[in-house]
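Researcher: Here's a chain I'd like modeled. Treat it as a single chain, no partners, no ligands.
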Amino acid sequence: MKNILITFTNAIDPTTGGVERVYHNLVPYFREHGYNVFATYQRKTDYDKNSVYTKAIFMEYSIDNVGYFDKLDKVMMEMAVDIVICPFPSYQLFNYCSRLIDKKVFFHVHNVPSKLMYPSSAKLPNILKESFVDRCLKRIRFDLRYLASFRRIELNKMKIVLLSDFFRDDLKSFYDFNPKCICALPNPFCIDEEYQLDYQKKEKMILYVGRINTRQKRFQSLLNIWKRLQNELLDYRLEIVGGGPEKELYENLAHEMRLKRITFHDFQNPTEYYKKAVCSCMTSNYEGFSMVLIEAMQYGCVPFVFNSFASLPDIIDDKVNGYVITPFDEGEYVQKIKEFILLSKKNKEIISVKAMEKSREFDVRRVGQRWIELIDNY
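Model: Modeled as a single isolated chain. Structure tokens:
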């Protein structure tokens, strides 16, 4: 049998986030190679009825409700599932999936492992972060939620799939898995083979695509950077494509900061924005393997990003196909954007072409084939 189940804890709509886009890209490749791919999910959108999945099953129960796992058992049986991909760090799902000894089980970690499974308590005052108290609380929380599951994963020779080999040390910092349980695969992308870069069509646009929040995306930094650029790059504008609970807060803040030539758009397909923008900005505190970087690069939209996550060297070569900035140095960020903008059109185009070339390393056909090899060799 070749029946895969992917367990989502929210929507499956690819416009709602990077994890959802990963499987939207990967699932058609699986299906072309003889697999049925099912999804369980907990938030409905218009995408569901025409999704890429063989079948998507809405889970009306909360994951804290025993009814959720009763229904999951039923789905497993009815769909004759023999391969499970668990893409979210729910300790309840880890507990459940780590017991599926008759199936091939993959725990797909879509971000920095410690940020997902060994985080500081959100209720802990900042002054105590990284203190002895913080370290003790993190260990207690991990032991209560994940330790038994991790031991079963190792005992049952299941797989932890990281986004980059650079995350191995981070995972090892709180649990030392047998190396045979760990592998690394980058996110897959559907490269637009028909796109031809015409640099004349690039507009004087700087772009941000993604969730708008403070904790991970550090969105305040983007506004600070634009505050310093807006009076120097008078012909340029900043376009924001994204959303989240903090969007309205930041729209109001942009108004209070008297930011000019800045427009907020809701979540939508960002392709046309990538095609028009000369560069895209990321200011995140941390990332796993950023979808928006590769998506931008395939359209010659040059990425600028803080060097704040381990997988970045897999994606960007500084000043070759993008720009890497010292973590959270907003002054350096401003200078590097100005440095790029002041290049001749020819030299900007060279960097854009290099970005496009780099993006092809992550084509879904390459990554999908590695997934199939991983499943076959389980």
